[in-house]
Design goal:
The chain is an all-alpha fold. It contains 20 helices and no strands.
Length: 418
């Protein structure tokens, strides 16, 4: 029982505890190591003495002591020690209150980790690791790079922050713009980890509600930039559809098959307002186009209306003109298959670097679906197996298994030749 509680609390609270420790001790390595040591201590203490009344608070206080011990060993306590404890609640105590402080404090550490002194390819990765608690494997998958490469980037980034003596404060407004892209990319990827799980029951389920708050805060901080507005719109469009993402058996429902009557119209209305403001602030850019794609789906009022595939494809064409990457091309191929047929989508898939997509589940899922449409059922089965081997969330696994189960049982010789 105590192990299950620790696992849940560590997943939900790691980011805010590390943020609080980093803000206090001005050292990312100490913050991360101290939290890990606190979890090890909990593994020893909780089975013997029971789970504490406030597990997150216990982990923070234990990590705080571990951090002080580390500072003593490094003989730097006099230089880095915090001010004497006041009698009233400390900043770190406030950081443990989700309802008030966490979104702002996480945003502060996101801005710190996205400092321009850190290399551009490392800023979002470092923040996802320290603030959001994603594993190295999850971050490497998001960036489509090998794990060792990502791990080296993280080490270099933390060293750079320590060597440069970067302040643990949100920069002045005139410096926000140079960090904004990395901040937005971090929030975007963190949210995508929550969105991957249709049931919203995985390790990163809490990100969905937190990102709603973070994007709202960013828009308030930077009201005249289109990208924060577009991201705020995108998150609300996707969250609005969450009630329709599962069937009664707990199986994922693809977007084109979801019942729009179940979508949250208040969230869609909020998203519409954000997107309208984003469009008025400048020419189309990748984030406004991505939000527009999600918004186009949300125009649909019921399942009797045709899916807006032609409009979706046109928007992906526009997106491809300003952001040509494999993920955009992969998503465009889904719309292309619906508008122009599976062979056109196959041709697009063949142009992608398959070696870079072997650990990317949507690639295998799309390939399996196209192979099914082509009547190449044995190959489709292998593609479904490849997708299932990447450990999808339960709802997605059930959908993939159902798709695989409905394949005709044909031998390779009986399949059409391409």
């Amino acid at each position: 029982m105590s192990l299950a509680v620790l696992d849940q609390v560590a997943r939900e609270a790691s980011g805010r505890i590390v943020a609080a420790l980093a803000a206090r001790f001005r050292d990312l390595d100490i913050a991360e190591d101290a939290f890990s040591d606190a979890c090890v201590k909990a593994l020893e203490a909780w089975p013997q003495h029971g789970v504490p009344f406030d597990p997150a608070g216990w982990l923070y206080r234990t990590a705080e002591r571990k951090a002080l011990d580390a500072l003593r060993r490094r003989r730097t306590r006099e230089r880095l020690a915090p001010d004497p404890q006041p009698t009233e609640a400390t900043q770190e105590d406030a950081m443990l209150d989700d309802a008030r402080i966490i979104p702002d404090e996480r945003l502060r550490l996101i801005f710190v980790c996205c400092h321009p002194a850190v290399s551009p390819e490392s800023r979002a990765a470092l923040t996802l690791r320290l603030v959001c608690g994603l594993s190295v494997a999850e971050i490497a998958q998001a960036f489509l790079v090998p794990e060792p490469t990502l791990a080296q980037r993280l080490v270099r980034a933390k060293r750079k922050i320590a060597d440069a003596g970067i302040s643990f404060e949100v920069p002045r407004p005139e410096a926000w713009h140079e960090r904004l892209e990395a901040v937005l990319a971090t929030i975007e990827i963190a949210y995508s980890k929550s969105h991957e799980d249709a049931a919203n029951a995985g390790n990163h389920a809490a990100y969905a509600s937190e990102v709603l708050q973070l994007t709202r805060t960013l828009v308030e901080m930077i009201p005249h930039e289109p990208d924060p507005l577009a991201l705020a719109a995108l998150v609300r469009y996707t969250e609005a559809r969450r009630p329709a993402r599962l069937d009664p058996q707990g199986c994922m429902v693809p977007l084109s098959q979801q019942d729009p009557a179940l979508w949250s119209r208040p969230l869609i209305q909020q998203a519409d307002l954000y997107l309208k403001r984003a469009w008025t602030l400048g020419a189309q850019n990748p984030r406004t186009l991505q939000a527009a794609i999600h918004g186009t789906w949300c125009w649909r009022k019921n399942l009797s209306e045709p899916a807006p595939w032609p409009q979706i494809l046109a928007l992906y064409d526009a997106l491809l003109a300003c952001r040509d990457d494999v993920v955009v091309r992969l998503n465009r191929a889904v719309a292309l298959a619906e508008v122009a047929g599976f062979q056109s989508a196959f041709d697009e898939l063949a142009s992608l670097p398959a070696q870079d997509l072997q650990n990317f589940l949507p690639y295998h899922a799309l390939r399996a679906d196209l192979l099914r449409q082509a009547g190449r059922f044995t190959e489709a089965q292998a593609a479904y197996d490849a997708a299932l081997a990447l450990s999808p969330a339960l709802a997605e696994r059930r959908w993939l298994e159902n798709q695989k189960r409905t394949l005709p049982s044909l031998s390779p010789r009986s399949e059409p030749q391409q």
